Amino acid sequence: GVYSKDYGPQFAHCNKTVWNPVGSGLSYEDFDFPIFLLEDANETQVIKQCYQDHNVPREGSVPEYPLCAMQLFSHMHAVTSTVTCMRRSSLQSTFSINPEVVCDPLLDFNVWSTLHPINSSGKVDPEKEVIIVATRIDSHSFFWNIAPGAESAVTSFVTHLAAAEALHKASDVHLLQRNIMFTFFQGETFDYIGSSRMVYDMEKDKFPLRLDNIYSFVELNQVALRNNSVLWMHTDPVSRMNASVEVQVRNLLDILSYSSLGTNVTLQEPGYSQPLPPSSFQRFLRARHIPGVVLTDHRTDFQNRYYQSMYDTPENVRMQYPEGLSPEEMLEYVTDTAKVALFFHIPFGSSLWDPVCINPSSLYKPISISSQVSRMLYGFLIKMNNSWFQSIIKPDIKGILGDVPQHYVAVSSPVNTTCLVQYVLANLTGTVVNLTKEECLNPDRTPSSEREMYDYAWVQGSLDPNSTARVPYCVRSTVQLSKALSPAFELRQWGSTEYSTWTESRWKEIRARIFLVASKELEIITLVVGVVILVFSLLTTYFINAKADVLFSLPRDAGAVAY
C-alpha cells in the first residue's frame, strides 16, 4: 500500500484502522506439511468410513490393528523464497538445453476500456483529462484456485460493468467534457500486481495514458453488504493536505452525494480522519497526488466476515434463488443482490458526469440493466457455462467456461475471469457491426475499421430458435488488455520491496492414498523374519559358491580311461 514511514506514518501498519479484525492471516503462514481440501463428498466419505472401521475404539478399549492411514503427496519444486527460485530458474534457462523452471511469477492481464475511443498504440494529448473508474477482478483463499470472491470482488466489478453499460448508452454522452476509463485490475490480492504495473507503464510511456492525464480516480471496493443502504466515501487524508487536491476531492465528494439524491442509496463520508482501505488507488498515490474516492459498504472494519476466504460465496452476499428454477430461469431471475447492484449503478454512474449536464434518470433502464446484472451475477458466482456467456465469447475459447467460477490470478494467462470480463464489457459497451467473419478477424484489411481505436471480436452468438446452429456476429468496442505482471520481474529485482514479488511453485502430481498399517509388533516380527531370511540366503549363497566345483562339476566321459 501507500502508507509507510515516508507517507502518512501515523497510518502505516494499521495503526489507525484495522480493516479486517476477524482475519487470522492464515493464508500467509508457512506450513512445513501439505494441507489438502477435498470437495467431493464421496472421497471424504471413503476416508471417514476407513477411519470408523479401523480406528474408532470399541467398548472403551484401544483400537486394534490394522489401522487406517493416509499418505499425501504434494512435492513442490520451489524452495525458500522468490529470490532463490527465480535465480535457480534463471540459471537453468541460461545454461541448460532443457531448463527445469521451478517457479513462475503470478501474471495475467488488466481489462480496460474508454467511453470515447483513444489510440491504443499512441499517446493521449497531455491536456486531455481522463477519469479512471477502477475495481479488481481477482480474489484468493487459503487453498489454490478456490476463490469465489463474491463480496470481495464479484459484486463490485459487476456493478462497475453495469455502470459502464449505462454510461455508454446514456443519451447525453456527447456532453461529457472528460473521457472515462473503465479499468478492471487483475492480481490485486497479491500486493496490487495489476495497478502497480499500470502505474509503471504510465511512468515509462508504455501506456496510452500518462499520470498527468488523470483528472480523478473513483474505485469500487466491497459494496454488497451495506447497512441501511449506506455506502461510505473514503479519501486519502495525506494527499488532501495539498490545497489543490483538497478542492478537487471536495468537489468529487459533493458530486457523489448529489448524485445519490432521490435514489435508494445514500453516500456518506466516514466523518473522521482515517487511511484508505486496501485499494488499487493506493498504488497511484505512491506515484503522485491524485484526487480520488474509494466507495465501500464499510465505514471502518469490513462487513465481510469471509474476506479472502473460500466461504466468500453467493450465500455470503445473500444471493438466493427460489427452489425448482431451471438454469435458464436462474440466469434471468433478479435476486435481491442484483437489485442492490442495480440501484447503486445509478448514483455511481451519474457521479462521473457534471450533474448540470446530464439527467441521472437517463442512466436508469430498469428492464435491460436488471437483466444484465442478474446474468452477470449468475455467471460469475453460480455457473460460468451458461447460454449468455456462451453467446458473447469467441468460438475458439469456449473451453474457458467451467462450471464453478473461481477468480484466482494464477500463472497461465489470461484466466477465465479475465476473458469473460473482457467479452462481457465488449458486449455491454460495444456495437454490433456489419462485417463478415473474414473482415472481423482481419480489420486491418478494412479501410474504415480504425484498428488503432477499436477492438473487433467475432463471437458465437445465440442459438437460432429454428435450429441448433448459432448466429455469430462481429462486435466493435474500445476494450483492451494490458499486462498485469509485476515490474519486479521485468526489472529482475526479485527481492524488491517496491513491487509485488509473488511467485507460484511448480509441482508434481498432487495425490493421496489410503492403506492399512500393521501393529508395531507385527512390523518387528516381519523385520526379524526378513533379516533371518536374508542371513539364511547369504549363507546359502556362500555355501553354494564355495562348493560350486563339486555341485556343478561336469560328469566324466564313460569311455575315457585314466592311467
Automatic annotation (TrEMBL):
**Alphabetical list of InterPro entries matching this protein:** Ncstrn_small, Nicastrin
Its localization reads: Cytoplasmic vesicle membrane; Endomembrane system; Melanosome
Q: Name one GO cellular component term.
A: cytoplasmic vesicle membrane
Q: Which GO terms describe its biological process?
A: Notch receptor processing; Notch signaling pathway; protein processing
- Reading the lineage from the top rank, the first entry is Eukaryota
The Nicastrin small lobe domain covers 7-78
Membrane topology, as annotated: Single-pass membrane protein; Single-pass type I membrane protein
Keyword flag Phosphoprotein: no
Membrane-spanning intervals of the chain: 524-544
Which keywords are on file for this protein? Cytoplasmic vesicle, Disulfide bond, Glycoprotein, Membrane, Notch signaling pathway, Signal, Transmembrane, Transmembrane helix
Question: Which family, according to the similarity comment?
Answer: Belongs to the nicastrin family.
The record describes the protein's role as: Essential subunit of the gamma-secretase complex, an endoprotease complex that catalyzes the intramembrane cleavage of integral membrane proteins such as Notch receptors and APP (amyloid-beta precursor protein). The gamma-secretase complex plays a role in Notch and Wnt signaling cascades and regulation of downstream processes via its role in processing key regulatory proteins, and by regulating cytosolic CTNNB1 levels.
> What is this protein's name?
Nicastrin
